[in-house]
Design a protein that fits this description.
This protein has 426 residues and is of the alpha+beta class. The protein contains 13 helices and 20 strands. It is globular.
């Protein structure tokens, strides 16, 4: 009777087995009371009579309630254990997205840029020990003595020096904060690669990452990463065209339904622009300059067209006179640099036209509506978007912060691993 009374106090019911909120509701109900022992049970405290079916319902509800409560407690306990386990696992694991570029390497961890350094390493020639990487090594480039060797381990978007790439990656990964771990964490990497890369070159990237400490390596093509970083829905059926001009290669691709429909990869990009500037200064001004100086010329007065609305001021270039060997300074204008880069830019235009020619008609109609998107450091060249727009008669959009577009897309792909797993290469 005590259990029944407890249940009645907490679960008052009518003869139709419906719950009632208060005892006043019980008084308002016309409950027929009987004294037959085989059909009723009397609760002396409440002075009420209930049928066997009602008693059965009360006990079944009570026990079901206890079972549900126990299951809920068990679920909460398991959830806490799982969170604790994941928390412990996160201590010994780390996920990073890497844009391993010819000119610069960008590493993101937890959607934050933790490394943004030039892809260059300085080594001691005799022992092979690492002296500097990134910006410090770039300051040494072209200024070293015979005991120091500066190496740019990537050329044309692929690995040219396997050992130097491995050492450089190790040093960059240390910059992400792994030295604060008691034990080296298990690294999970997503690295972007050119779309025209060969199987051998792809294997070299994977091996370098694994030797640098990665336990799991996935790769994503640069045009796809750039599109994701821009904010394009790459899984949608509509087509989009991406031009990614990096340091070693220019990637032109048409994307739809989570894949690359047609693409073109050419080894004409930022490094080729620098070579063109070096060659122009040698031929027209008899001035020998280095790669770093050519890069500064490109940044300050680089242009793709000979007429700009807001032209930059002439830039003073320092170098060595090829006639007498004496250091000399020469001022150059943006029109001269546009002339120097004309041949290389014409190759990019031809690649864009070739890609458009191989695009299916339905996707061509989509591209006509949306236009062409440009990413990469080369897209910052003055007037390049207008020149391509004039050549293709299409709208050309330069993305916001194009230098980090590929790195952002790689990070998003890593974060949404299951969503984008279809085009993440193992």
């Amino acid at each position: 009777m005590t259990k029944v009374y407890f249940l009645l106090r907490n679960f008052p019911i009518t003869k139709d087995c419906n719950f009632i909120s208060t005892y006043q509701d019980l008084n308002r109900e016309n409950i027929s009371l009987t004294n037959r022992r085989d059909k009723t049970l009397i609760s002396r405290n409440l002075n009420l009579h209930f049928t066997k079916s009602q008693i059965k319902f009360i006990f079944s509800y009570f026990f079901d309630f206890r079972i549900k409560l126990k299951r809920k407690k068990l679920y909460i306990c398991r959830l806490k254990k799982r969170r604790l386990k994941m928390g412990l696992f996160s201590i010994f694991s780390k996920e990073v997205a890497i844009d391993l570029g010819t000119a610069n390497t960008v590493i993101l961890h937890n959607d934050k840029i933790v490394v943004d350094e030039p892809s260059i390493i300085a080594l001691e020639r005799n022992s092979g020990a690492v002296m500097a990487v990134g910006k410090k090594a770039l300051m040494m480039h072209g200024r070293t003595h015979e005991n120091i060797l500066t190496v740019r381990p990537l050329k044309d978007g692929v690995i040219a020096d396997y050992q130097a790439t491995e050492l450089m990656l190790r040093e960059f990964i240390k910059m992400t904060g792994t030295k604060n771990y008691l034990f080296p964490p298990a690294m999970r990497m997503v690295i972007c690669i050119p779309s025209g890369i060969t199987n051998v070159e792809e294997r070299a990237v994977r091996d370098s990452a694994e030797q640098a400490g990665a336990k799991e390596v996935r790769m994503i093509h640069e045009p796809m990463a750039a599109a994701i970083g821009i904010g394009i829905d790459v899984l949608d059926a509509s087509g989009n065209m991406i031009i990614d001009i990096g340091g070693g290669t220019s990637e032109i691709a048409v994307l739809a339904l989570g894949g690359i429909v047609t693409s073109k990869s050419i080894k004409v990009a930022g490094d080729e622009f620098n070579d063109d500037i070096i060659e122009y200064m040698r031929k027209h001004h008899n001035l020998a300059i280095g790669e770093a100086t050519a890069e500064q010329v490109k940044i300050n007065v680089g242009a793709a067209v000979d007429s700009l609305e807001n032209p930059p001021e002439d830039y003073e270039v320092y170098g060595r006179n090829l006639l007498d060997g004496i250091p000399r300074a020469v001022k150059v204008s943006y029109t001269e640099i546009a002339q120097a880069l004309d041949r290389s830019i014409a190759k990019i235009e031809a690649a864009v036209i070739n890609t458009l020619e191989n695009t299916p008609p339905e996707l061509s109609s989509d591209i006509y509506k949306t236009g062409i998107y440009m990413a990469g450091g080369g897209s910052l060249l003055r007037g390049l978007d207008k020149r391509i727009s004039k050549k293709t008669q299409l709208q050309v959009h330069v993305t916001e912060d194009p230098l980090k577009a590929v790195a952002r897309g790689t990070s998003i792909a890593l974060k949404n691993f299951d969503k984008f797993s279809s085009f993440l290469k193992k």
